[in-house]
Amino acid sequence: MLSDRVVARFLTGKTVEGNLIRFDPDSGILKLRIGSEKRELDCSGLKAIFFLRRPAASPLPESRLRPGGKKVRVTFADGEEITGYSYGLHPLQAGFYLFPIRMNDRNERIYVIRKNALRIQTEEK
Fold it and tell me: What distance in Å separates the CA atoms of residue 104 and residue 59, rounded to the nearest whole number?
């Protein structure tokens, strides 16, 4: 069962953590519940959305760590880099998912906002 807990990281360095209500990559809308408040965030100012694992979750199985995709390194303008495996990097899509490399990673998956990435590099496994 996937967690509904997410962290939205903005280009400005700001982070917002909450429970996912709805995420639509095509429209660029992220709806979260933060405490008792519902908030709608515009994804255009985000670097990425981190979908968090449940705290008591067991380590990710090897099949989730190498989902048959390419190893990808994403660099943002502030120097932050994230690396993971992706099923596909379609240049016309607004973003793409990365899956963790480490078994005990805090994230189940990460959605990268393509236009806000400074560099996207694929690496050999």
Answer: 5
